[in-house]
Amino acid sequence: MTVDSPAIGKTALYNVRVFNGHGLTEPTTVVIDGAVIGTDTDGADSVDGHGAILLPGLIDAHVHLAGKESLDQLAAHGVTTALDMTTFPPEKLAGLRNQLGTTDIRSAGTPIIGADGTHARIPGLAEHAVIHGPEQAEAMIAERAAAGSDYIKLVLEAPGQGGPDEASAKAVVAAAHAKNLRVVAHAASLGAYTLALDAGADIITHIPSDGQLPAQDVHRMAEERRVAAPTLVMMKGIATALGRLGFADSLASVATLHAAGVPILAGSDANTEQGVPYQPAHGDSLHRELDLLVTAGLTPVAALNAATALPAQYFGLPDRGAIAPGLRADLVLIDGDPLADIHATRAISRVWCGGISYA
Question: Residue 112 has what DSSP assignment?
């Protein structure tokens, strides 16, 4: 897809069936009025949807941006908001914000990691990201807040595997919450997942591949109102690349979390980082994540909500995630019914990012 001129006008989309979070409406009209969804069709250009389905713009709850090209790849696949989990230095991140006509972003900026975990081996990251003890947490959170981080990414490993220790993790969460910042904890093993719960992280990303989540941790996720972003496409890719068993456990854990009422967010972990065992493609991989969520037992409705309303809710983005007057005009028009077959999300005919159309 190629982006049109960023002029924003008024467009009335006639004869579209809208995904409303529960199902599909009868054919109706949706008005794009500048950057938001409006109600008045007067003076609007008309587009006949021919009964196609209109989704809220998709939200990928876990990406790593490489540059402007990442935004365009995401937008071309209907991902109108990306929640970035690592971009540094701050100047690079600032250059990717507020780009008209493409994917809108929020970001953790520079993450917080341990001195001896796998992330400490990413070139250039360790000197800015390592926490050596709980006494550093307040200053590190203040630095990230000043640099514009929208939330905090805390990279945890199982105890003894080189990540932040429990005292440091708890101090990071406390300092972040004192500044009203959410904490997203990386936890790709059973030990790290329990540590993320003990530390008080708000959102836990990845799902263990070294066994199924124990019932106690599932219960805590539900009772303590934590949120899961399992990145199944990444976990499957790593398992395949490294010849590991365990992806069946990952699927089973997601099924158990969902059955317990834990909110599930769709995140791909799209990245282009050298040295990472698997690199999901920006945009396309979110559609594969939706497939895997359905495989794990979510209904297509639940999977779509995992990529629209739920990430908007749990990342504090009240202006998107649904199609309603006053919200951002982030929209995806598709041919086919994703409630009958989730693969239909790929059949994109048109995308609008903040009211600006892609052709």
Answer: B
pTM of the predicted model, to two decimals?
0.96
Q: Is 7 exposed, middle or buried (0-12, 13-18, 19+ CB in 10 A)?
A: exposed
H helices present in 118-178, as ranges: 126-129, 137-146, 166-178
Structure tokens at 139: 């200053």
CB within 8 A of 216, min separation 6: which ones?
none
Task: Look up tokens 């059973």; give the residue.
Answer: 190
187-240 pLDDT tens trace: 999 999 999 999 999 999 999 999 999 999 999 999 999 999 999 999 999 999
Yes or no: say if 44 and 11 are a contact pair by the CB < 8 Å rule: yes
- Angle at the Cα of 351 (from 350 to 356), degrees rounded to 5? 120
Q: Report residue 142 as tokens.
A: 């203040």
Residues 201 and 181 sit within 8 Å (Cβ to Cβ): no
List the beta strands (DSSP E) in the chain: 10-18, 28-33, 36-38, 45-48, 53-56, 58-63, 79-84, 104-107, 152-155, 183-186, 203-205, 227-229, 331-334, 348-353, 356-358
Cα–Cα distance for residue pair 306/348, rounded to 1 Å: 19
For the stretch 341-353, what's the b/e string if a residue is b when 16 or more beta carbons lie within 10 angstroms of its beta carbon? Answer: ebebbbebebbbb
Q: What are phi and psi of 156, to 5 degrees?
A: -110, 150
What the block records as the tokens of 192 is 């790290």
User: Cα(148)–Cα(15) distance, rounded to whole angstroms?
Assistant: 41
| 120-137 average pLDDT score | 84
